[in-house]
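Researcher: Please predict.
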Amino acid sequence: MTIANMARLAMPQARPSLPHREATRVGNAPALVDRFGRVHDDLRISVTDRCNLRCVYCMEEDTTFAPHAAILTFEEIVRVASVARGMGIRSVRITGGEPLQRRGIVDLVARVASLGFSDVAMTTNGVGLARFARDLERAGLRRLNVSCDSLRSDRFARIRRRGRLDDVLEAMDAAEVAGLAPLKVNVVLVAGMNDDEIEDFAAFARRTKRIVRFIEFMPLDAGRAWNRDHLVPTEVVLERIASRWPLEPVEPVDQRDPSPAERYRFSDGEGEIGVVPSVTRPFCGTCNRLRLTADGAIRNCLFSDNELSVRDLLRRGGSDAEIAALLRRAVGSKLPGHGINESGFLQPRRSMSMIGG
């Protein structure tokens, strides 16, 4: 890998702005398009704020969870998802907390999948995945992201504070046997904690053919300890991997693809990695996401404290038209970017586990 080629890999990847994407219309309802032309067709649905782990970059040991009465019921989740589907939302991702902690999760996945989304995915910590994998696939789940921040058992335990690495690795095998492949493995890198495993995870991707995605540590930790000293820039990740195994960018099938991950294949054909540069290369200009929190708030940005309560609307007898209007309001108020790199940025009041990934 030459210096010039490494520099090319390190440069921000140009992404077309979303006004060029075709906006879907459903009947007379306009697509969810914001003031900047970004078409919103992806919904992240958090089904619980509870988790069986306490990852140091996310939760505190003494985290207080929302009371059950505050959490959306399955019927409420499905109703919001159904309205969103009618407004052009094409894909959903089930998140948490840890979604497998929600009792009846397989039934919920089946009910959401029955609405006709083109893609139904889930992000999980993997601890309880092995016993659910086959049933989730049969229910209509199509893709899985499994979080795994270390390949060393002792370090895994320190980062996650609970759970066993072997259980997560076995769950990955079970998911692939169930047909939930190719599997994506999410690695949150924290400087001084697990950044010495970058090459190990790249080797893991080559050996297993799982797509390892290196995610920059974001200011969404409950302990509010985040600072830039903890950040491992995407540029560093790519340079270190490319110095050992040459990489080449993977061009998306659709050039307007708003996915946050930049994809790279190993030049010898032995697998693929991804990087999610949320801090150093913000992809706000192509963001296509809305989020539904477990307690029924609609959020138009992971880092924004602006929320609209669809739960309150539902529980006072609101109509589908009112739900649709609320979704449009959320999209209409979206800012051009998250502002992490601006002097006035304030960390959101909610941590990642409370928002949903």
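Model: The CA atoms of residues 151 and 241 lie 17 Å apart.
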